[in-house]
Design brief:
Subcellular location: Cell membrane
Oligomer: single chain
Radius of gyration: 18 Å
Largest sheet: none
Shape: globular
Number of helices: 12
Keywords: Cell membrane, Cobalamin biosynthesis, Magnesium, Membrane, Transferase, Transmembrane, Transmembrane helix
Order of helices and strands: HHHHHHHHHHHH
Distance between the termini: 47 Å
Strand content: under 5%
Helix content: over 70%
GO molecular function, one term: adenosylcobinamide-GDP ribazoletransferase activity
Organism: Streptomyces bauhiniae
Number of strands: 0
Family: Belongs to the CobS family.
Length: 263
Protein backbone atom coordinates (compact mmCIF):
# COMPACT_ATOMS: atom_id res chain seq x y z
CA UNK A 1 0.00 0.00 0.00
CA UNK A 2 1.54 3.38 -1.01
CA UNK A 3 2.49 5.66 1.83
CA UNK A 4 0.65 8.94 2.18
CA UNK A 5 2.46 12.09 3.38
CA UNK A 6 1.13 13.04 6.83
CA UNK A 7 -0.75 16.15 5.71
CA UNK A 8 -2.42 14.64 2.65
CA UNK A 9 -5.15 13.03 4.76
CA UNK A 10 -6.18 16.19 6.63
CA UNK A 11 -5.89 18.21 3.41
CA UNK A 12 -8.22 15.82 1.63
CA UNK A 13 -10.67 15.81 4.54
CA UNK A 14 -10.83 19.57 5.05
CA UNK A 15 -10.67 20.33 1.34
CA UNK A 16 -13.61 18.08 0.45
CA UNK A 17 -15.78 18.19 3.58
CA UNK A 18 -15.56 21.89 4.52
CA UNK A 19 -15.21 25.31 2.91
CA UNK A 20 -11.99 25.92 4.83
CA UNK A 21 -9.51 26.99 2.13
CA UNK A 22 -7.19 23.97 2.00
CA UNK A 23 -5.56 22.93 -1.23
CA UNK A 24 -5.94 19.22 -1.99
CA UNK A 25 -2.71 18.05 -3.62
CA UNK A 26 -3.81 14.48 -4.29
CA UNK A 27 -7.15 12.99 -5.33
CA UNK A 28 -6.21 9.32 -5.56
CA UNK A 29 -7.56 6.40 -3.54
CA UNK A 30 -4.66 6.45 -1.11
CA UNK A 31 -5.23 10.11 -0.25
CA UNK A 32 -8.97 9.45 -0.05
CA UNK A 33 -8.37 6.64 2.45
CA UNK A 34 -6.29 8.89 4.69
CA UNK A 35 -8.77 11.72 4.26
CA UNK A 36 -11.80 9.72 5.28
CA UNK A 37 -9.95 8.37 8.31
CA UNK A 38 -9.35 12.02 9.24
CA UNK A 39 -12.98 13.04 8.66
CA UNK A 40 -13.78 13.30 12.41
CA UNK A 41 -11.05 15.96 12.68
CA UNK A 42 -13.07 18.18 10.37
CA UNK A 43 -16.05 17.50 12.61
CA UNK A 44 -14.04 18.65 15.61
CA UNK A 45 -13.18 21.93 13.87
CA UNK A 46 -16.78 22.47 12.77
CA UNK A 47 -18.11 21.52 16.20
CA UNK A 48 -15.79 23.90 18.01
CA UNK A 49 -16.80 26.75 15.70
CA UNK A 50 -20.45 25.85 16.22
CA UNK A 51 -20.06 25.80 19.99
CA UNK A 52 -18.06 29.03 19.92
CA UNK A 53 -20.76 31.03 18.16
CA UNK A 54 -23.49 29.51 20.29
CA UNK A 55 -21.66 30.41 23.48
CA UNK A 56 -20.99 33.93 22.24
CA UNK A 57 -24.69 34.57 21.70
CA UNK A 58 -25.53 32.90 24.99
CA UNK A 59 -23.09 35.08 26.90
CA UNK A 60 -24.48 38.16 25.12
CA UNK A 61 -27.82 37.33 26.68
CA UNK A 62 -29.64 36.19 23.55
CA UNK A 63 -30.95 33.00 25.14
CA UNK A 64 -30.67 29.26 24.50
CA UNK A 65 -32.91 29.23 21.41
CA UNK A 66 -30.91 31.77 19.44
CA UNK A 67 -27.69 30.12 20.59
CA UNK A 68 -29.02 26.82 19.27
CA UNK A 69 -30.00 28.35 15.93
CA UNK A 70 -26.52 29.82 15.58
CA UNK A 71 -24.88 26.50 16.45
CA UNK A 72 -26.95 24.73 13.79
CA UNK A 73 -26.18 27.42 11.22
CA UNK A 74 -22.40 27.11 11.55
CA UNK A 75 -22.06 23.54 10.19
CA UNK A 76 -24.37 24.47 7.31
CA UNK A 77 -22.21 27.48 6.49
CA UNK A 78 -18.92 25.59 6.79
CA UNK A 79 -20.14 22.92 4.36
CA UNK A 80 -22.00 25.29 1.99
CA UNK A 81 -25.12 23.41 3.03
CA UNK A 82 -23.99 20.35 1.08
CA UNK A 83 -24.85 17.88 3.84
CA UNK A 84 -28.32 19.35 4.22
CA UNK A 85 -28.75 19.35 0.46
CA UNK A 86 -27.64 15.70 0.41
CA UNK A 87 -30.18 14.88 3.10
CA UNK A 88 -32.98 16.46 1.11
CA UNK A 89 -31.92 14.84 -2.16
CA UNK A 90 -31.61 11.42 -0.54
CA UNK A 91 -35.07 11.77 0.99
CA UNK A 92 -36.47 12.64 -2.43
CA UNK A 93 -34.70 9.67 -4.01
CA UNK A 94 -35.87 7.22 -1.36
CA UNK A 95 -39.38 8.61 -1.33
CA UNK A 96 -39.81 8.61 -5.10
CA UNK A 97 -40.52 4.90 -5.38
CA UNK A 98 -38.68 4.91 -8.71
CA UNK A 99 -36.10 2.37 -9.93
CA UNK A 100 -32.50 3.07 -8.94
CA UNK A 101 -31.47 4.95 -12.09
CA UNK A 102 -34.52 7.19 -12.01
CA UNK A 103 -34.14 7.80 -8.27
CA UNK A 104 -30.49 8.79 -8.78
CA UNK A 105 -31.58 11.17 -11.54
CA UNK A 106 -34.09 12.75 -9.16
CA UNK A 107 -31.33 13.23 -6.61
CA UNK A 108 -29.16 15.07 -9.15
CA UNK A 109 -31.80 17.69 -9.86
CA UNK A 110 -31.27 21.16 -8.45
CA UNK A 111 -34.77 21.43 -6.99
CA UNK A 112 -36.04 19.87 -3.76
CA UNK A 113 -39.21 17.82 -3.69
CA UNK A 114 -41.79 17.41 -0.90
CA UNK A 115 -39.99 14.51 0.79
CA UNK A 116 -36.79 16.53 0.87
CA UNK A 117 -38.45 19.67 2.24
CA UNK A 118 -40.25 17.76 4.99
CA UNK A 119 -37.12 15.83 6.00
CA UNK A 120 -35.01 18.99 5.99
CA UNK A 121 -37.44 20.99 8.11
CA UNK A 122 -37.96 18.24 10.68
CA UNK A 123 -34.23 17.55 10.96
CA UNK A 124 -33.33 21.20 11.51
CA UNK A 125 -36.14 21.60 14.03
CA UNK A 126 -34.92 18.55 15.92
CA UNK A 127 -31.35 19.85 15.97
CA UNK A 128 -32.37 23.31 17.16
CA UNK A 129 -34.75 21.94 19.78
CA UNK A 130 -32.14 19.53 21.15
CA UNK A 131 -29.41 22.15 21.32
CA UNK A 132 -31.77 24.70 22.87
CA UNK A 133 -32.53 22.18 25.60
CA UNK A 134 -28.85 21.51 26.18
CA UNK A 135 -27.95 25.22 26.27
CA UNK A 136 -30.92 25.77 28.57
CA UNK A 137 -29.48 23.25 31.03
CA UNK A 138 -26.02 24.79 30.94
CA UNK A 139 -23.64 26.46 28.54
CA UNK A 140 -21.22 23.56 28.98
CA UNK A 141 -23.79 20.92 27.96
CA UNK A 142 -24.70 22.95 24.90
CA UNK A 143 -21.08 23.32 23.85
CA UNK A 144 -20.43 19.62 24.41
CA UNK A 145 -23.46 18.76 22.30
CA UNK A 146 -22.33 20.95 19.42
CA UNK A 147 -18.85 19.39 19.41
CA UNK A 148 -19.94 15.77 19.86
CA UNK A 149 -22.59 16.02 17.15
CA UNK A 150 -20.10 17.61 14.75
CA UNK A 151 -17.55 14.85 15.27
CA UNK A 152 -20.16 12.08 15.19
CA UNK A 153 -21.51 13.37 11.89
CA UNK A 154 -18.13 13.01 10.22
CA UNK A 155 -17.44 9.66 11.88
CA UNK A 156 -20.50 8.38 10.03
CA UNK A 157 -18.70 9.32 6.80
CA UNK A 158 -15.62 7.35 7.81
CA UNK A 159 -17.73 4.26 8.45
CA UNK A 160 -19.70 4.72 5.23
CA UNK A 161 -16.46 4.79 3.24
CA UNK A 162 -15.42 1.39 4.57
CA UNK A 163 -14.46 -1.51 2.35
CA UNK A 164 -17.41 -3.40 0.93
CA UNK A 165 -19.67 -0.36 0.47
CA UNK A 166 -19.95 0.32 -3.28
CA UNK A 167 -20.49 3.56 -5.15
CA UNK A 168 -23.83 4.10 -6.91
CA UNK A 169 -22.24 6.16 -9.69
CA UNK A 170 -18.84 6.00 -11.40
CA UNK A 171 -18.21 9.68 -10.73
CA UNK A 172 -18.48 12.19 -7.89
CA UNK A 173 -17.40 12.19 -4.26
CA UNK A 174 -19.18 8.93 -3.55
CA UNK A 175 -17.13 7.13 -6.19
CA UNK A 176 -13.92 8.79 -5.00
CA UNK A 177 -14.21 7.57 -1.41
CA UNK A 178 -16.44 4.48 -1.57
CA UNK A 179 -14.72 1.44 -0.10
CA UNK A 180 -11.40 3.16 0.59
CA UNK A 181 -11.29 2.73 4.39
CA UNK A 182 -10.31 -0.67 5.83
CA UNK A 183 -12.96 -1.97 8.22
CA UNK A 184 -10.40 -2.28 11.03
CA UNK A 185 -9.34 1.33 10.50
CA UNK A 186 -12.93 2.56 10.57
CA UNK A 187 -13.61 0.67 13.80
CA UNK A 188 -10.43 2.03 15.37
CA UNK A 189 -11.43 5.60 14.54
CA UNK A 190 -14.89 4.92 15.93
CA UNK A 191 -13.43 3.64 19.19
CA UNK A 192 -11.12 6.66 19.46
CA UNK A 193 -14.01 9.09 18.89
CA UNK A 194 -16.12 7.28 21.51
CA UNK A 195 -13.34 7.50 24.08
CA UNK A 196 -12.69 11.16 23.27
CA UNK A 197 -16.39 11.99 23.64
CA UNK A 198 -16.45 10.25 26.99
CA UNK A 199 -13.39 12.16 28.11
CA UNK A 200 -15.00 15.45 27.10
CA UNK A 201 -18.16 14.56 28.96
CA UNK A 202 -16.15 13.60 32.04
CA UNK A 203 -15.24 17.27 32.46
CA UNK A 204 -18.90 17.83 33.35
CA UNK A 205 -19.32 14.79 35.57
CA UNK A 206 -19.61 10.99 35.38
CA UNK A 207 -23.15 10.95 33.99
CA UNK A 208 -22.16 13.29 31.17
CA UNK A 209 -19.17 11.05 30.43
CA UNK A 210 -21.45 8.03 30.02
CA UNK A 211 -23.98 9.95 27.99
CA UNK A 212 -21.41 11.51 25.64
CA UNK A 213 -19.63 8.19 25.10
CA UNK A 214 -22.93 6.41 24.46
CA UNK A 215 -24.06 9.09 22.00
CA UNK A 216 -21.39 8.10 19.49
CA UNK A 217 -22.24 4.42 18.88
CA UNK A 218 -25.96 5.03 19.36
CA UNK A 219 -26.10 7.81 16.78
CA UNK A 220 -24.41 5.53 14.27
CA UNK A 221 -27.27 3.02 14.43
CA UNK A 222 -29.78 5.10 12.41
CA UNK A 223 -26.94 6.18 10.10
CA UNK A 224 -26.04 2.55 9.44
CA UNK A 225 -29.68 1.65 8.79
CA UNK A 226 -29.94 4.54 6.33
CA UNK A 227 -26.69 3.48 4.67
CA UNK A 228 -27.94 -0.06 4.15
CA UNK A 229 -31.24 1.21 2.80
CA UNK A 230 -29.44 3.47 0.32
CA UNK A 231 -27.10 0.71 -0.85
CA UNK A 232 -30.07 -1.58 -1.34
CA UNK A 233 -32.15 1.10 -3.05
CA UNK A 234 -29.54 2.90 -5.17
CA UNK A 235 -26.89 0.20 -5.55
CA UNK A 236 -24.34 2.11 -3.52
CA UNK A 237 -23.45 5.49 -2.03
CA UNK A 238 -23.28 8.95 -3.54
CA UNK A 239 -22.16 12.33 -2.27
CA UNK A 240 -25.80 13.02 -1.37
CA UNK A 241 -25.97 9.84 0.69
CA UNK A 242 -22.85 10.87 2.59
CA UNK A 243 -24.50 14.20 3.40
CA UNK A 244 -27.66 12.45 4.58
CA UNK A 245 -25.62 10.14 6.81
CA UNK A 246 -23.81 13.08 8.40
CA UNK A 247 -27.03 14.93 9.22
CA UNK A 248 -28.70 11.77 10.50
CA UNK A 249 -25.80 10.99 12.82
CA UNK A 250 -25.52 14.58 14.06
CA UNK A 251 -29.23 14.74 14.88
CA UNK A 252 -29.27 11.36 16.60
CA UNK A 253 -26.23 12.31 18.71
CA UNK A 254 -27.97 15.45 19.95
CA UNK A 255 -31.11 13.51 20.82
CA UNK A 256 -29.10 10.95 22.82
CA UNK A 257 -27.32 13.76 24.68
CA UNK A 258 -30.71 15.14 25.70
CA UNK A 259 -31.83 11.88 27.29
CA UNK A 260 -32.19 12.01 31.06
CA UNK A 261 -31.93 15.76 31.44
CA UNK A 262 -29.19 17.22 33.62
CA UNK A 263 -26.86 14.86 35.45
Amino acid sequence: MPRTPPLDGPRFAFGTLTVIPVRVHRWDRTAARAGMLCAPLTGLAVGLASAGLGLLLLFLGMGPLLAAVASVAVPAALTRGLHLDGLADTADGLGSGKPAEEALAIMKRSDIGPFGVLTLVLTLLAQVAALAGLYGDSWARGALGAVVSGVAARLALTLAARAGVPAARPEGLGAAVAGVVPVAGALAVGAAVTLAAGAGGALLGPWEAVRAAAAVPLCLVPAELLLRRCVSRFGGVTGDVFGALAETSATAALLVLCLGGTG
